[in-house]
Specification:
The structure holds two protein chains of two kinds. Chain A is an alpha+beta fold. Chain A has a single domain, classed as Nuclear Transport Factor 2, Chain: A, CATH 3.10.450. In chain A, about 25% of the residues lie in helices and about 40% in strands. In chain A, strand 5 (about 155-170) and strand 6 (about 175-185) form a beta hairpin. The longest helix of chain A has 19 residues, at about 40-60. Chain A is globular, with a radius of gyration of 17 Å. Chain A starts with a helix and ends in a 14-residue tail after the last strand. By secondary structure, chain B is an alpha+beta fold. Chain B folds into two domains: about 45-155, Rieske [2Fe-2S] iron-sulphur domain (Rieske Iron-sulfur Protein), CATH 2.102.10.10; about 170-420, Naphthalene 1,2-dioxygenase Alpha Subunit, Chain A, domain 1. In chain B, a hairpin with a 4-residue loop joins strand 8 and strand 9 (about 120). Chain B is globular and about 75 Å long. At the A-B interface, helix 1, strand 2 and helix 5 of A face strand 13, helix 8, strand 19, helix 13 and helix 14 of B.
Amino acid sequence: MPEPIAATAEESVPEATDVQRVLVPGDGSGSYATGEAPLDLQLLHEVEQFLYREARLADEHEYDAWEALWADDGIYWVPANGDDTDPTTSMSVIFDNRSRIGLRIRQYHTGKRHSQIPPSALRRLISNVELLGTDPDDDQLLLVGANFLVYESRERGVVHWAGRYDYRLRRRGDSFEIVFKKVRIVGNDRPLHTLAFLI
Amino acid sequence: MTTTVPADRAAWDALIEHDRVHGSLYTDPAIFDAELERIWYRTWVFVGHESEVPEPNDYVVKSIGPQPIIMTRDKQGEIHLLLNRCTHRANLVCDAPKGNSSAFRCPYHGWTFSNTGKLLGYPFNSGYGGREKKSELGLGRVARVASYKGFVFGSFAEEGETLEEHLGAAADAIDRLVELSPSGEIELTAGWLQHEAKANWKMLVENETDGYHPQFVHSSIFTVADSKIGELYGEKSPAVCRDLGKGHTENDLRPAFRERDEPMSWFGTTADRLPDYVEHLEAARGKERAREIMIDGAPHVMIFPNLFIAEIQIFVIQPVAVDRTVQHVTAIQYKGEPQINRRMLQQTIGSVGPAGMLLADDTEMYERNQRGVHAKNPEWLVIARGTHRERLDEDGFTIGDATDEVPQRAIWRHYLELMEAGA
């Protein structure tokens, strides 16, 4: 059955305009990475605390609090078959615009998202956090990279998920909001087990 | 539970009854090995689509069950299915998932094979004293290769029924699918997600045309998306399930869509949202026929043993071990139709694969079934639903109500035939 997502949620299909922002290079090109500017330790600390908080909310299935971290124009992308595919023409594991992120969260709240009943027991480690400068087209967007390792346990058994997060974060009050999150899973070109939790 | 393959017809009959099947069929490694020999290495199995190797010398790595296959297009345009195994020391000759090359060079000792499988040569050839028979050392081949409207199938059996005979009535599903594309062609060019299930392959095959589960397994997404899909698989649905013969089965939703009488309702949208597509389809098929096509929608057909056409997606079921199966899935794309293709791709991404709002839950069911089927008591799985109301349609096919288990009984009847033929 392919249609339910279209059935009424027309708005949940990511548009081409969503995608253009995805294709902007998101790592390695920032000022810190090229050593042009001194490291802003205070900013790094704030960013790390934000990422740790997001990780805890995801691990503990605090769906609403996790969703609240997203910007209205947020994009959540988990590519497949490599890290630099074009999600408008290629399959991805997840390619959610803000509307579809909301749909995903509402699906959990029905209590009938069977692949998360019971919810996966999760803990993830975030490390190698790097400030990678700002978006070339919008200097209000911070580019951030980090590695992750997620330990997932459920009836199926234990699965380890490792990879790299690429973020674009925007200031919101004294914290941030997620404008873009790309999850580059190690081995995304090979068979993957069900990934029904928030990665 | 048995631990050996049933020795004769009577022993098979004891495991597969009309309305129930024995749990060992999902758990016994010896039965799995017998299935590879009698089903996967004998009948026609879907391997790939011609659009995956569009240019001369294109290749893509594929599989038939656990067998590693390279699908190539040679410089004359002909498609070959070669075993990815060097004839010297059994190394894999191809290590890229896809590419363009006229030859494959084994990394171990440099033996080189053309993309038609022929051994072109090897280094230091004086070492064989001129006595080797190069013509006998080409790559292994899938014995028979045939295409139907771009769908490439292979059979390891040198002889047997033709692909057309194997497809039988299921060919009509492929006809219906390509007719939805204004050009008459579909493409599978978006790449495949590979979603692994810790479950026996037959759990997947049986689920694909199970009209009983959607309202339970998928109620979460139907509810939040305010979808009308659930009602297609309800007690009151005019949709039917059908035994197409040869183990092929379908959920035929056309009766429900014809009642709605709204073009593109099958796709969860309206025609005015896809003006380019509608214009092209009307130009290609005529206004009247285009309207019928847009009302009837795409097929939902499981072609035994591994090709599931799910309206806007193609699934390929790959058995890897008795309790491990990989589902390969991609979005169908209509050649030359970017407007509808973008939507088909994005809806597919939302629905299927490891995080899919539908398939993650189906796969959870497969894995829970696989855990449960090891239980000692009872040892049987029931497939009796709708037995009392099975009937023949006007073409002589057995049909049932939308939620009946006509497809599951059809799959097992065909399975029994194949397994007994090898006993």
